[in-house]
Amino acid sequence: MARTFVWHPTRGPKTTDKLQPAGKGKLEIKQVRSKIGHSWRMRRTLEALGLKHPHDVVVHQDSASLRGQIKRVRHLVTITPAKEGA
Predict the structure, then answer these.
(1) Torsion-angle region of residue 23: left (phi > 0), alpha (psi -120 to 50) or beta?
(2) Nearest by Cα to 69 from 39, 40, 49
(3) Burial class of residue 76 in the structure, from the number of CB atoms within 10 Å of its CB (0-12 exposed, 13-18 middle, 19+ buried)
(4) Alpha-carbon torsion 8, 13, 14, 17, what sign?
(5) How confident is the model over 53-81, as pLDDT tens digits?
(6) For residue 67, how far is the Cα from the chain centroid?
(7) Are 30 and 42 in contact (CB under 8 A)?
(8) Bridge-based pairing state of the strands 57-61 and 26-31
(9) Is the Cβ–Cβ distance between 79 and 27 less than 8 Å?
């Protein structure tokens, strides 16, 4: 996922890690920042991903729609490819 426009230059990641193409394997998503103080859309997106509080971890099958959700909350989560056993 390439860097896209950020409203505030001091917020959000400077770059995002390059992952394998969407649809291949599973992704492990970990919430690293709180949803407090963020818009209702971001809160709902985190809920849709299954993340309820910081340090929550979920594993989802990679897809284009999942990438879109991650892109919306990329400053609140970290993404890593899931291990085979997960």
Answers:
(1) left
(2) 49
(3) buried
(4) negative
(5) 999 999 999 998 999 999 999 999 999 98
(6) 8
(7) no
(8) antiparallel
(9) yes
| Residue 5 scores a pLDDT above 60 | no
Domain definitions of the chain by residue range = 33-81
Element (H, E) at 66: helix 64-72
Question: pTM of whole model > 0.70?
Answer: yes
Superfamily for the 33-81 domain: Ribosomal protein L30/L7 (3.30.1390.20)
β-sheet bridge partners, residue 61: 26
Q: What is the pLDDT of residues 23-59, one digit of tens each?
A: 678 999 999 999 999 999 999 999 999 999 999 999 9
- In the chain the beta strands, taken as DSSP E runs, fall at 26-31, 57-61, 77-81
Query: What tokens were used for 79?
Result: 């993404």
